[in-house]
Amino acid sequence: MFKASVVLLSGLLLWAAWFVIAYALHGAQCAGGFALYRTSGQIAQIGLWVVSLGVIVLQARFVQRWGVRHDLAPRLMRSARYLQITAIAATVFVGLPVLVLAPC
Questions:
Q1: SS3 per-residue string spanning the chain
Q2: How many domains in the chain?
Q3: What percentage of the chain has pLDDT greater than the value 70?
Q4: How far apart are the C-alpha atoms of 59 and 18, rounded to whole Å?
Q5: Angle at CA 42, nearest 5°, toward 89 and 46?
Q6: Residue pair 41/24 in contact by the 8 Å Cβ criterion
Q7: 33 domain-assigned
Q8: CB–CB of 60/84 below 8 Å?
Q9: Is 60 inside any structural domain?
Q10: In this structure, is residue 91 part of a structural domain?
Q11: Which range marks the domain in which residue 93 is found?
Q12: pLDDT tens, residue by residue, 11-46
């Protein structure tokens, strides 16, 4: 049961990890740490966002295949699908300010 719970929440766990890394990078960029310039820091954030979004989408496909392979109940599969869609939407909407706002 624990493994199924982790698999079902994996998209949101990946989103949370991306969120922490992205905003730590933003803080380091604005504070001038690690010799990150505003433009290069923003490019790094956009790259991280795109890679994270791709990983979360691939993870969503994996979760669906895993559920079919382990014969999960239809209601649990539907919950898994909604959780993965939530993770994808959260990554898109939280990452959008990186594209449209000034770095600091």
A1: CHHHHHHHHHHHHHHHHHHHHHHHHHHHHHHCHHHCCHHHHHHHHHHHHHHHHHHHHHHHHHHHHHHHHCCCCHHHHHHHHHHHHHHHHHHHHHHHHHHHCCCC
A2: 1
A3: 90
A4: 14
A5: 35
A6: no
A7: no
A8: yes
A9: yes
A10: yes
A11: 52-99
A12: 899 999 999 988 887 777 777 656 666 677 778 888
CA distance 8 to 82: 10
The confidence score (pLDDT) of residue 92 equals: 93
What are the structure tokens assigned to 89, written together? Answer: 């939407």
CB-based contact 34:57 (threshold 8 Å)? no
Question: What pLDDT score was predicted for residue 28?
Answer: 76
| CA atoms of 90 and 56, how far apart (whole Å) | 11
State both tokens at 41.
């820091």
Apex 55 CA angle, 66 and 22, nearest 5: 135
C-alpha span between 60 and 69 (Å, rounded): 14
C-alpha–C-alpha distance, residues 94 and 97, integer Å: 7
Domain assignment of residue 59, yes or no? yes
Give me the amino acid identity at 28: A
Tokens of 32: 């001038």
